[in-house]
Specification:
Length: about 190
C-alpha cells in the first residue's frame, strides 16, 4: 500500500467531529470515511454525509458479508467502517482518515498494523463532562453512560501512537494534518 491510514479516536464528546471538520477545511485533500450506524440521525444529520444510517438487520448483513473493516457497539448502537472505500483510497495513495471509537481503533491496530493511531484527549475531565452535558440532545442516562465509557477510554491513550490535546480546535486540527501528511505525503 502506498499510503498509511490515520485513525482519530478518543472519548465521546471530546470533539473528534469538530476537529475532523477543521481538518477538512485546512486540508481538503483528506478523505474521511463515512461510517454505517444503527443510531438515529440527530437534527441536521444527513444520510450519507455524517453517517450511513442503517437498520440493525442491514448492519448485521454487512458484518456477515465481511464488508466492515471494524465495528463496535457504542452506547447501545452499532457503528462500523465500510471496508471497500477505505481499501480503495489507501491503494490509490489518498490521505485517509477514520474517526472511530476506542474499540474500533483497537480492531484497526490488528487489521491494519501500520495504521497510525491518534488519541484526541480532552483538556480536562470537567471540560469533557461539560461538553457531553451541554450537547442536550441525549437524556441524562445516556450522558452518564457515555461519561462512564469515557473514563475507561481516557486510560487507553497509552496504547496510541500519538496524543493530541483538544484545547484549541484549529491547533489540534493542524497537529492532526501534520501527522496525516507525515505518513502520507501527497
Ligand atoms: P456519535 O453517536 O456521537 O456520532 O458517535 C459515538 C461514537 O462512535 C464516537 O466515539 C464515534 O467516534 C464512534 N464512531 C463513529 N463511527 C464509528 C465507526 O465506524 N466505528 C467505530 N468503532 N466507532 C465509530
Amino acid at each position: 500500500m502506498s499510503s498509511r491510514l490515520t485513525v482519530l479516536s478518543g472519548p465521546s464528546g471530546v470533539g473528534k467531529g469538530t476537529v475532523v471538520a477543521a481538518v477538512r477545511r485546512q486540508y481538503p485533500q483528506v478523505w474521511v470515511s463515512v461510517s454505517c450506524t444503527t443510531r438515529h440521525p440527530r437534527p441536521g444529520e444527513i444520510d450519507g454525509v455524517q453517517y450511513r444510517f442503517v437498520s440493525r438487520a442491514q448492519f448485521e448483513q454487512l458484518v456477515r458479508e465481511n464488508a466492515l473493516l471494524e465495528y463496535a457497539e457504542f452506547a447501545g448502537n452499532l457503528y462500523g467502517t465500510p471496508r471497500a472505500p477505505v481499501e480503495q483510497r489507501l491503494a490509490a495513495g489518498w490521505p485517509t482518515l477514520l474517526e472511530i471509537d476506542l474499540q474500533g481503533a483497537e480492531q484497526i491496530r490488528a487489521a491494519v498494523p501500520d495504521a497510525q493511531l491518534v488519541f484526541l484527549a480532552p483538556p480536562s475531565w470537567d471540560e469533557l463532562e461539560r461538553r457531553l452535558s451541554r450537547r442536550g440532545t441525549e437524556s441524562r442516562a445516556v450522558v452518564e453512560q457515555r461519561l462512564a465509557l469515557a473514563r475507561v477510554e481516557l486510560e487507553a491513550q497509552r496504547r496510541f501512537d500519538e496524543v493530541i490535546v483538544n484545547d484549541d480546535v484549529n491547533r489540534a486540527a493542524a497537529e492532526l494534518v501534520t501527522l496525516i501528511q507525515r505518513v502520507c505525503p501527497v
